[in-house]
Queue: 2 jobs
Job 1
Amino acid sequence: MNKKLLNTGVQDFILQNINTDIMSVLLKKPLFEDISQQELSQQIESKKKCKKKLPTWYKTPGIYYPKKINIEQTSSEIAAQYKSGIIAGKSLLDLTGGLGVDSYYFSKKIAAVFHCEINKNLQEITAHNFHMLGAKNIQTFAINGLDFIKNSKKNFDWLFLDPSRRNDSNGKVFQLSDCEPNILENLELLYSKSENILLKTSPLLDISIGLKELSGVKEIHVIAINNDVKELLWVMKKGFLGGIKIRTCNFTNSRVQNFDFELTEEKTAQPDFALPLSYLYEPNASVLKAGAFKCIGFKCNLKKLNPNTHLYTSSRLIDFPGRRFKLLKLVAYGKKNVKNLNLTKANITTRNFPESVDGIRKKFKIKEGGSSFLFFFKDMDNTSQVALCDKV
């Protein structure tokens, strides 16, 4: 950590050149004493990366930015703030602290937060940033979180873990046993220090596999931002054997879409099926990741188009955690019928359909975009259909 980067003149230069081409900065002769152009470029690049993802860091004077990869791997402020709403108590230990975005938001709900980061340089950067952000109730340590907990005589109200999902060759992994630390090998140790664990895993992890491998799962939270699943959160309680709650949340630019259900509800739900009615509904990505294929139709009083077609329909428009469409025209799938729609541009979605979106575009010469929406799907009779819709 080169503290000379925090000098006023350097900070002014970083802010003034936030949109400057990085290569032009790198190729210049050193502009400041004891500061390389590589260090200067890193600060500019990393600060710019924070503008949307970490706006509080971006707007706070005196923030020291780590390497770009550390920012890419950290939670967004939206997701971190959501996580802070899950926990409550007096103490929390973040075993895999990183840049500390989650710890910062936990500190707004918890009296004492302990932040562990094995990378000494990143830990120093994070400690400095906590100071600049005014987070006075966070203690940060340059240590492996598991070593910290083994040597600590203290118990905590909560433990939080976000295991690294990169292997020795820097490739991405997502299975629990491939992440570091391996929570499956250390569950007994973790539960000896806290009855409550909040675990963040890759959104690629299969929920059914996680349920088989983890013990004490009480809730699963599926978090999406603009219909892109970002985080899978597991709320675990020592010895818990009750029903599991699934909570889905999709943050859009205009609203927050929530849908909650019990795991048993999905297993026992008996959907009603129908041919497309006046309106079609497409669940958001968090609902689909959660596997709420049957109970969402049941709980929203909608008909499903086919057991394997995750589209829903109704005669009257309702509020829905996903996209809503007005059905304009329904035709059986066929070359002549699709061409008769006279569309050269449309947004295309396939559900339970044998052809890909790219294949359909090439076949019918339909470009991407425009205001029309086409759904290619199998209906309740397993007939291939095409629905022309407007978004509501």
Job 2
Amino acid sequence: MIATILPLIGRRLALSVLILLIVSILLFCVLRLLPVDPAAMSLPPTATLAEIEEKRREMGLHLPLPHQYVIWLGDALRGDFGISILFRRDVLGLIAETLPATIELAVLAMIIATVLGIAGGLLLFHVRGSYAEAPADVGSIMLLSLPEFLWALFFIFLFGAELNWLPFTGRLDSEFSDPGGSGFLLIDSLVAGRLDIFRSALEHLILPSFALGIGFAPPIMRVLRSSLIDTYQEDYIHLARLRGLSEGRILVRHALKNAILPTLSLMGVQFGFLFGGTLLVEVIFSYPGLGNLMVDAVRNADLPIIQAVGLAYCVMVLVINTVVDSLYLVLNPKLRTR
């Protein structure tokens, strides 16, 4: 099986590299069309026209656009994404500091969305044909119509401001400091044996991750319910009933593993959108991740950060889709023959 799957995964990785290259070209060209002069912004307000022109030549902005891109691509392949205009620091270092926070938030939100989506889909399927079907269906549509930022505001108001159960700003309580290491607070705190820091980091993650997870769970619920309904029309389900298998065993051993395949495809798309959705949620919760870095960069027209963060989001979405595609290949033998 592995020998069959690896070439297919290799082709998907090659396609991902091509997509990343196209995205980098589009980002580079679009950002260069903005009415912003990176050379002037990187100098003090008192800089003369001669100094600005000299800086433009130093940054290669006087060269044709394709030539500029080739130079930028060569630097990027060496890990040099330039210096931030706002922070006056290496862009790659800034991303390395903020990306772990966003990954922690996105992974926890994905877990929540998966658990709620599958559990909700099974519940919707279970109540089909009963009096509870209509209320459950209406409830899932209501959940589907509420975006993640509304959940974020609701959670802040209820659990943060009114009940004061959970914190809703930052990554840690003020009395704690980052234990250092990989940048993933949950992992670093456990490695350091600091359960108090682990608890604080987890408490700060609960509200934003649930806001994201609940916002992306309803489509998973509805697709899984529809897939199960279609699967239960197959002949092998009827044969399983004739063999005397219980409904629970039919669901777990036969129906669910086939109905989960289209749901898995949707989850790949949803999780890609979920990672992009962290930007707005991070801003609402003042969460110091990649999204907040991007917002600060946009406010200050910091082109090196905007381009690098845009590519970082693209890479993470491609990684998520590649992982989901790999799982799909493992679960669906029909695709391995292609």
